Amino acid sequence: MINFKRNFNSRYGNRILTLIVFVMGVGSSFPIQAAVREYWIAAEKVFWDYAPSSQNLIDPDDGLGVWGRSIKYKKYRYIGYTDSSYSIPLLQAESMGILGPQLRGVVRDTIVVHFLNKTDRPLSIHSHGVLYSKDNEGADGKSAGASVPPNGSYDYTWIVDEAAGPGPSDPSTIVWLYHSHIMTEEEINLGLIGALLITRKGMENSDSDPFPRDVDHEFISLFMIFNEENDEESGLRHAVNGRIFGNLNGYETSIGKRVRWHVAALGNEQDNHTIHWHGQTVLDHGRRTDVIEVFPASMVSVDMIPRSPGSWLLHCHVNDHMMAGMSTRWHVLP
Ligand SMILES: [Cu+2]
């Protein structure tokens, strides 16, 4: 595999390079496209707190119920770093919670993810949406990137072709999930999950800033029930980005801003969620609504321009999930 490391010295974990080279996969080759965005991601064991306030911040009088018997667990996470020293973590918005680093690309880019497995079990990174050779799939058998052993590393190369970007009816950015894909269900439940945003070519702010120029704030919301104790109700954590009962902070915007929500779900058959915003409607591919339906591994991007100031609920509208804490607030300043 091509080693780009010496070409970069990035403090931001996202540098571009103009170059045309070829990646040779097993039985296939893809041209690397003009801009290369580099990321350094380590998988690490962490303690995760589903409710750092130890309170039900939605209905304080109700407390955390059976779902609060334990709120801290050993989890595994993808942690982003600025460079190959894996010493300085990337800054990450508080609202992203347990999610891995926010990856971004623009159509025609190439994304190179340098993965270092600092845990005690083999892991991988498999991304939805992008173009990859078998060795860059991060899944399925014995190909090179399918299983990275403890203390091992691997460089994944993903091509952001037209088919990885927004379609004709999509907004200027769309969301893809990435996750580990060996014991997939276990690894997702452990917390090895993140999101990749792809911007339509020409809608990026600049070559170095892939953020879409027609949006002021982008938020990611992963609705997922983590199973901590053999499917016992008291062991289920009905979470938004890994936080329960209003403990996810950082969804902050203001009146008139152009806000895009990238909503996704993961998990099992109970992870059928109906995401509801109070105070505001969203535009979902031309359809006006204030509830978005997601199934496990669904990914959808919707837009809004907040019209009413306040701290508003954002919650799953499935009764059992709502009662179990799948709820937080988003804040609209005047
Ligand atoms: Cu739900």
Task: List descriptors.
334 residues; mainly beta; Immunoglobulin-like; five-stranded mixed beta sheet; four-stranded mixed beta sheet; 2 helices; 23 strands; 4% helix; globular
Describe this structure in words.
It is a single chain. The chain is mainly beta and 334 residues long. It has one domain (5-333): Sandwich (Immunoglobulin-like), CATH 2.60.40.420. It has two helices and 23 strands. It has helices at residues 184-190, 319-323, and strands at residues 22-25, 28-31, 35-49, 72-81, 103-106, 109-117, 126-127, 153-159, 173-179, 193-199, 204-206, 209-212, 217-227, 236-240, 252-254, 259-265, 273-277, 282-284, 287-289, 291-294, 299-304, 310-316, 327-333. The strands form seven sheets. It has a five-stranded mixed sheet. Strands 4-3-6-8 form a four-stranded mixed sheet, with no helix packed on it. The longest helix has 7 residues, at 184-190. Residues 1-28 have low confidence and may be disordered. The site of copper (II) ion has 6 residues, from loops. Copper (II) ion (CU) is lined by residues 223, 273, 316, 318, 321, 326.
